């Protein structure tokens, strides 16, 4: 496996390419009537257009659990109105990014290091899957349920995703269904199972104290 430093250097070289691709995509954000959206009562200088939150990746330890580092309008306000955002996905061996959707943008994933099993389901319930190798790109169409899984039991994987929205949004299927107080009977009937099974699923997904 390549070192984290070398893979991050490759990541940095591809940022400009990803930016161009994301800007060409049809974005989910409204057009703005100015060059950028300035912060209210704030100073606009080079610092406003700089995000340093990814520095923790350089020389840092690999996480023990699946981790996402985001650069969206929430973390990086200069992205407001720019129709672009990024996420760095770190997959320790054997971890997954559970099924989820991004309601406001497609996702273009670039695998920097390792291998990943990926897939999405379209509106006709067709499942499209692929085993990605280092250097591969994969697009998840806007709004469709998709996932990523590092099936390698020994090695980690590192990927970066570009979005054509400053706030693509994430709807986690397990979390949305089982941690939002939807009635147990509704879920049991929907999944054709019993209430006890639903309660076990909810307990397993409940935040740890």
Number of strands: 10
Helix-strand pattern, N to C? HEEEEEEEEEEHHH
**Structural class category:** alpha+beta
- The share of residues in extended strands comes to 25-35%
Tally of separate helices: 4
Query: Overall mean pLDDT score?
Result: 90
Q: Which residue ranges are poorly predicted, with pLDDT under 50 across at least 5 consecutive positions?
A: none
Which outline best applies? globular
For the largest beta-sheet, the strand count, sense and barrel status come to: 5 strands, antiparallel
Describe the structure.
The protein is of the alpha+beta class and 209 residues long. A hairpin with a 5-residue loop joins strand 5 and strand 6 (127-132). The longest helix is centred in the first third of the chain and has 21 residues, at 4-24. The mean pLDDT is 90. The chain has helices spanning 4-24, 173-178, 184-190, 195-205; strands at residues 67-71, 85-91, 96-101, 107-113, 116-121, 127-132, 137-140, 145-149, 157-163, 171-172. It has 4 helices and 10 strands; from the N terminus they run H-E-E-E-E-E-E-E-E-E-E-H-H-H. Strands 1-2-9-4-7 form a 5-stranded antiparallel β-sheet, with helices on one face. Strands 6-5-8-3-10 form a 5-stranded antiparallel β-sheet.
């Amino acid at each position: 496996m390549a070192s984290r430093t070398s893979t991050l250097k490759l990541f940095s070289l591809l940022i400009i390419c990803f930016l161009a691709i994301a800007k060409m995509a049809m974005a989910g954000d409204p057009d703005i009537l100015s060059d950028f959206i300035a912060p209210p009562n704030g100073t606009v200088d080079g610092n406003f257009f700089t995000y340093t939150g990814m520095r923790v990746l350089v020389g840092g330890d690999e996480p023990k659990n699946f981790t996402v580092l985001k650069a969206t309008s929430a973390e990086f306000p200069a992205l407001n109105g720019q129709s672009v955002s990024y996420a760095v996905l770190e997959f320790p061996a054997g971890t997954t990014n559970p099924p989820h959707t991004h309601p406001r943008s497609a996702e273009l994933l670039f695998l920097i290091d390792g291998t990943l099993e990926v897939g999405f389901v379209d509106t006709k319930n067709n499942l499209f899957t692929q085993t990605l190798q280092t250097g591969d790109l994969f697009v998840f169409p806007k709004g469709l349920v998709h996932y990523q899984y590092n099936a390698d039991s020994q090695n980690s994987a590192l990927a970066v995703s570009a979005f054509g929205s400053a706030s693509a949004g994430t709807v986690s299927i397990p979390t949305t269904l089982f941690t939002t107080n939807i009635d147990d009977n509704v879920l049991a009937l929907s999944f054709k199972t019993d209430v006890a099974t639903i309660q076990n699923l909810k307990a397993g997904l409940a935040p740890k104290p």
